[in-house]
Batch of 2 targets.
Target 1
Amino acid sequence: MKAIVPLNVAALRVSSTDSTNVTPRAGFAGRTAAFDLLPHGPQAVQASTGDTIWIPLGSGSPSVPLETGVHLHWELPEFFKRGQLDQDLGAIVFPHAPTRWLVARSLSTYDQASGGYSAPRQASWVVESDYLSPQLRPDQYNLTRPAVSVPLTAPDGTPYMFMGRVVDAASWNPAGENAADYLPHYSGPGGKPLYLTSIGFAGAAFSGYYPDCRSVFGFWDTFADVSDVYAAITQNNPVKFRVSYTVIGWLPDAASDPLSGLAGAVTSQYNQYVSDAAEENVKVARTPADVFAGITENQYGWLFSGNAISYTLVSDTDETLATLDVPDGTLVAGVIQEVVWDQSAAPFLASATSGQPWTDQVRIAIGNTTVEAASALVKSHLAAPGGSDSVLASYETLLNALQLGVLRDLEGQGNALATLEQTLHERGFSQIDGGHQWTIQTKAAPGSQASAALTLPLTLAEQLATLNNAQAAYEQARSRIIAARRQLFMDWVSYVKQLSRKPPGTNVVATNTLGAFLATSGAGELRAVTNAGTAAGLLHYQNDDGSGRITGVTADGAATTLAGQVVTAYQAVTTALNKLAQDWELDAVPADPFWLPTDPVLVMEGNRLEPVRRNGPATAIAVRADSELISTLRIASGPGSWTVRAASVPALPSPPATLATLPQGAAAGAAITEASLLDPQYAAVVAAAAGNDTLAAAIAACEGGQSPLDPPAAAGLFGAVHTAGYQRTTNPAQSVQAPAPVTVTFTNAAGTALPPDAVGWNAQTALPEFSPTRVDPFLPVWMTWEMRLDPLARDSTGSGDPDKNYAPGTLADQFILGTDEMDLGYPLPAAFTTGQLVSYTGTVVLSKKPFVSLTEQINSYLKEFPGDEADTELSNALNDLSGRKVLSQALDTFGSAQTLRTTIPQIAVQNLVVSPDPVTKAIASAATATPGDSWYDTGFNSLTAISTGPQSQYNYGPLRAGFAELTGLSVVDTFGQVMRLTTAATPSSGALPMTAAVSMSPAAGDTANAGKAYLPPRVLAPCRVDAHWLSATFDSSVPGFTADFAETNDHPATSPVCGWIVPNHLDLSLAFYDADGKPIGSFGLEHGINKYRTRAGNQANPRDDLDLDLGPATAPLVNANIARLMRFAGGQSAGFLTDLMAAIENSDQFINPASFGQDAALSVLIGRPLAIVRAVQSISSSGAVLPASQNNNTTADALTQAVNGKWYDYGDRQARTTAGLGQVQIPVRLGELTDIDDGLVAFLPEASGSAPYSVVYSATAPADGAGKVVRPGADTIELTLNGPALTFTAIVDPRAPVHVSTGVLPTVTLRIPPDQYLNAMQQLAVTFTTRPVLRDQFGLRIPLPAEAGFAWTWVSQGAAPAPLSPASAPDVPSYGYSPQKLLEGWLDLIPNPAQPADGSQP
Amino acid sequence: MTMFSRAVRRQGIETTFADPAAIASTLGDVAVPDDIAAWLGRLLALAGVPFGYLVPDEAMLPPESIRFFRLDEKWVRALLDGAFSLGRNLTAEASGASAKLDRVLFGPVAASARAAAPLRRRAGVAAPDPAATDTAWTGFLMRSHVVADYPGLGVNVYPKGHTPSDSELILLPVRRLDRLGPAGDTLFCLAHGEAYRVDVHEAPELLHYGIDEYQPPAAQGQAPSADKQLRTFTRAQDGAVTIGSDVVAVQVGSSFRTRSPRVLRLAALAAALAAANEPGKTPPDPIDSAEMGFAMTEGVGMVSFINRSTSALAPGGTTPPNPPGSAS
């Protein structure tokens, strides 16, 4: 059984007039990749670098314009376009694409005399996508079809060959193929065998852009085989005909077929499930069909019907699989039918202005993300109610919330708004893999998830920290190595370009000097790069086949390498784990990612912008088994009925004979037959087979899909399948009344026929928004943009770099991170830019993310929550959106251009022009020298420097900020058609007006920058805020631990809680507790002074001496950090205590932990225990790498400086050529007052030494306090990139996390896991100040609730605690009790020592 | 700035907490869980309050005494506040957010506690629904042998103008009527409303045979001296009994056993009564059990206390010290 996957086929007609007046002109773009232009040989005048083979879109007329005829392009199904990250390589790996394509054509010519079409004539060709040849050869009609040039060395040494060819199907002979003529025979630069993928050698647009993949994923029908038609179309003679094409693709090598392992996967997964079910003694509920459906949908995005699988089980008791039949091969198949060519209507493609591109008037919105920009676009349509922009901005918030799925929460959940803002802000960054992190968890039971992380014994926690530190050092080193390799490549490109340039010209750095810098004996950049690789070593992970869990690590290289150190630490942990003999295991989880700011996103809306979703809007697509193809038509008309079986109608097309010999032959034949049964062109043949010629028109109407150029066009089955929300049914039927009452049932012999998916069944469609006669598609695939940036100024001159440096106070002095803001704003007037506009241009492949989701989301929201308050606004927005055509696209490369880098086609390091060139040879050989670590795998040759020109001159801007304007936009379609986007009004500045999302709007009142997009400051390197708890204590018996250590795991391995504070606002006292909940003493306001009192009932300290309770500083009796904090508090004035108490009390209203209901700690019932924790914070970039400047305009610029300074190591270079980026102070805000799920009450920055504290910062501190408890300012905490970490002591409500915000990076949350704070919280000895109470002659009797597991005692000043019995019934008089005494003291509720220590039942 | 901005939200939080009315409108209806309301309700009836706090010195309630009181609303409020202090932060700050929240919450909680307070009697003659009115609670403490000896003592409490002597009778609902301790001699009664007249009576079910005077015998073997005031009656042929207007004193001392001078010989008693009823007749007609019952049965005793001077139960009476266990 074969799977038939829908293939979208598009056809573009190019008439003779088009081919002379339209396709060679500015309205068309040509190929972008041209490896045949690669300079080589001594005659070449420039270097053989990747940039030479890239023809930028819009750089002029296409070199190979589309020729007369019909051009077909087929869009690969999404499965083949989806790459997956290979963990070991760190590279994206794409599936094998189909390489054999049968193109079957049916053609009927129109006879003016008879007023009808002739009988269809058939022809077919085979496109061999991965065929390689040194030259292009003409076919038997002397026409040369273009093919794709690829960077493979031809037998004669030419550094390129041509890929793809078209063979007449009749002469095609798969058996006679010579393996050396096909791509899999060749290997890539890393030595890996090559195969055809959706990205080919050119990149993401390769398979989707016809000029780049002609004769690979496209076909030019020249009509040369039909002489009358050919003559007419090439000579502009009158002719009318119609053609239908069926395109069927497959992979000739069964092993690389996506479904080759499907049966095995279904069998093993299902049998494993059955055995798991038996082990857990549960009934088998899933069937093999369920498993099959799960695999095909999740792994392939393919939805099969139940008929695509048949199986038998061993027996009723043994439910494992006995036999299984599922699709074992893949055919992709699609149809474009009824393409009508009426020569009298030519030209087909010309725009209103001859020779000029199409234009479209659009509205443009810009945001950090598609979500934001889409909301801003909708906002731009709405009139401001009452002229109030703030209401419009509120609509925008609503729409953002809707798109992120949190609209409903805004009203109901206290902190949903804060979460929404954090999420929106975070979406403005892309995640960069942070590597691995190790964690210890309980072993997973078979078939279930592993448990959450654990709290560990201290020594094990320290060993785990050692391992994680080693792992992080290794990962950072690898990131640094990758950056250094890329820098080496960029330097080499500069070098080889100078070396090869003829005439040589003047160079800023002498070529020889540059060569020596790259590689010289005993030194040089290459050596530094390879040395770094050697020092780091290479880590290999062993994975468990089933779960993918990492079960071991090994290292290439010595134990002293970073990789070796990871292995050593890994072994230490596993050894310790084995000794503990717990049911624990070591596992790796993804470490915190780094965040790279995304490029701004444009959302455009216009009449002619058809969103390109050629493979449908859904993530999964309906796929059929070949047994479900339509092969029979049952026709009923009045009393008569006829059954037409395709197999018995010789006039229907059949596949070429050679095809029948292949495993795919039968299925391909069935697909061709089905296409003819659905094609109105064959309706007459079908009618004749039924024996009733008069039914032909009615049968055609039941089929549907006729061209609008050839009326009448009926909806038929084609129309039904293309209706939104169509649910496919088996054996669909269609009825028409005119021209004759006929019902056609589309079925097959088994009665299991399903119609093709709409994606794979296409026809000519009218595009009235272009012109009344336009029927050729416009399918945008590229976007080119031009932008103008008024960038952030650098104002202090640095040493060694002529580019001015950023002042350390750039952010702190010129921007504000408002208490209530997520991002950095600026004060008016804006004075942080240079005022010198820099232009950027870029070309991006349009994303396929469907904007339509916004309307769908609104619809489903309205359906789900009728009567919601937001419904009116949403309905308005929906009405406004309906029927609009919208495209969304990020301005890719905008960010990298500012670090003076741009992408370059990846070709191997080679010098095809100058020989000998020992430098190039050395680099080329080093790149592939280490097995398993080819530099090409990590894209070391993917970037090139923008070292000259206006962008590089003084505009290196790794700290992106400023005001941006859009100056030009155009889109290019699959076939190369260009459309310029304009706006209704264009101001004199030349910028296109656009609506900025709130997050990118200039500050209110900033008239100078109105209409521009504000780019808040962003670091253009992957960075992250490293905020970690410090362990509360440490064990120095583990080597390397002499202080509390930073917990890198989200779940700290040991508790970070150093102690507790319980405030008593009535008495104005703060009670301090040790980490384990034991009371120490309290500070209270007594007679206007800050007085320390020891804990209730402590007779050992009658004089309330703080030092006696804390012990000596060198050997404290309590947690050392608590002791330090208490000494600090003890040394403060009464005003300090009052202020701190006020800050704590005020914070209460802003803290409402989301998880408050889960914490059944007694202490929470009687007060508000606050945990004392310590944290370290820093900001690091991936690999500690910052993007060094590539400027090379003068000898004072970065490149010359690096060469002259012999800064071989990337670190040396970065230190001096990043415009002082590393010194810029980044303001950090701790805690969120507006997020009620934020637990920070106060924090104290720590200095070194034994008295680290000086000031307490709290957002809720009184405005006019005594000065030691103050509100944090914008510059209270400032961190530098890769700079030293700052340590804080914080007073937090442990039930809520602490947020760390910087604006320039996503907000980070620090959370204490409940298992770590609850235990101590439940152990907190709770003392109730109680007064006055009466004691009668029989003793002290107080009505007390009996608390299981706890005992009550009475504590009075200077007396030992006296137990109290909750059982005594004091409300019954026992006379003789008088006289009574008034007492003051404390009630103490202490856990019973007999109870288990987990305090689970307080 | 949008209406959803963080600044607006923060201001919203601050504004809400600045004004108790805003807090109340944000909170909406405060629902107190039933079992908590019930517990607080019992506390309102002073259940569980140590006796030493109600009567700070027992000399204030000597044996064979009764003391009327009126509950001080402030004291009760403090009591409730103490119980309610769990689960919140106490503050000395009169205008603090926490204090305002308390202020808003106290009303609804106290109201649900009041509604859930125990109610002993709500008969047809009861006062209007007490939950609807917020009148004073009054009551008395009685320390007497009577309490110990007559375990079923009952109490009727009437407001002024609605006693049995008035035209419209209203019984105040009794919130609590407890003998303190299983064999205690102290009775605690708490009524909802201003008590004007309090009737304390034996248990209504305690109908009994009774005589009017009894003197134990002077010496062992002698008869006691006992009187019975007998209301005479006549009997018709058909058995109907008619009560006469005469009351004759009958010496029934000889009807007791001499060995057990507290045990009656009923036949002798019947004979004595028969003779006394018809003094002239010999032999008198024997009386049957119905007539015997008629002659000997007596009702329960009742004592009425009437608040003549308004000061006794007026506000401003003795206030006990702070409620116990109010954590501070």
Note: Chain A has a mean pLDDT of 86.
Target 2
Amino acid sequence: MQSAAYIAPAMSDGVVTFLDVLGWRGVYDRNPNATVQLSVLVDGLRKQGEKQRGKVQGDVIMKSISDTIAIFTHCDLKEATKAIDIHGELAAWTIRKSIEAEIPVRGAIAFGGFAIQDNIFIGKAVDEAAAWHEYADWIGVHLTPSAEFVFDGTHGGANWVQYTPPNKSAMPWHPRCVNWTRNWSDRSEEIDRIKSKFRNLGPIVPEIASKLLNTINFIESTAPMANGEGNSIDGN
Amino acid sequence: MSIELLEKEQELLSEIGKRLDQIKASYAGVVPEKVDIGRLTQEMGERAHELHMSLKNRGIDPKHHAYMIKNRELEPDHEEFYMHVHPVEDLLAFIDDPHANDDPVDQTVGHEFTFTVFSRRWGHDDTYTLARTDMGWDVKFTHSGPCDKGGRPFLYSNFNNDMVEYPAGLEGHLEWLWDRASDQGLSHDAVQSALVELANWVKATTESAPRGSVWEGY
């Protein structure tokens, strides 16, 4: 029983991201280094999060459980776009590194109330991120409706591209998706490199082929525009 | 060693600390009532700026991480700079340890290191050269060339060629070491010492591989 002095954390608003490694089940057969590589990835992500300090008042908090990485930042509505942008930058970094390490991730970014106590997290934003993060059939990260509704497009742009995340039951919307290829200088060389990484994930049986091909489609559809603004593309 | 504060500076520090604790508790949702974050941030920021300027006027210029100055889009002397939790946390860290906000400098890009392993094929030790590059390592031995942070591909093609057995986690450890050398600015000796540990791990793996009887000729 808790002591009388114990105060349970109250819900407060913020941004929640869930990232999950694709094909983690059985990964030990394909990649014996997967656990070390995931540790390196999480460690690197923590460092990237540190470098975001000073942008919004809340801390960037990382939690990882097995193959799921959760990122939290408390903020009010005024800071929501900035905080979502931070999560977008972190997600972009993670996607690039995860492909490099052959443990690719997908995920979703939500906005809403949440509370954290040690490794327990609850709240609407947590439920929403958890429900959406494995929804899309690709390697990538997109905003969920709650984050999309609070995002101010006039202040954020370059980190995002509007795209319909591929999945079996397409929804009539084009949420902002993390534009993780935007810093590429030689796109064709980078695409070749990604394809070579994908070959290492093989055998590319039908269950995983769609994820990889949908990712290639996304990459090929997201050539940066001259003004650096986000694109708007239909993925289906 | 922490900075010795004047009496007035100590008062400011105490007032800043109280407000910072309240703000952080509020963000974490562990205060029973809502607090006025805006007012507390304003009061904390004004006092932190006053403390910063007081220290600076005594010849002690509080140092901040380069990323903090970039993210705040303000110079630390600006009166708005401390209207935020994170630079205030860093000011307190600086007072506690003047090196707390030093940015590590990568000291070993371009440095060459040795990596000695035992070759079962030749029955003797071989010493590889690993030069640390911007992207990973440059391996110099029979198979030479640029490798990623984990040593792929040439470190392992040499191992396979010369019957050097190595642990499955070697690649991850090498990458970890590369990142540490970059992020923490490890010295040449620290990197070399870590590489010796890894090389000894490879040696132990090779030497503990089964041999003789049924394995003869493998």
Note: Residues 95 and 183 of chain A are 13 Å apart (CA to CA).
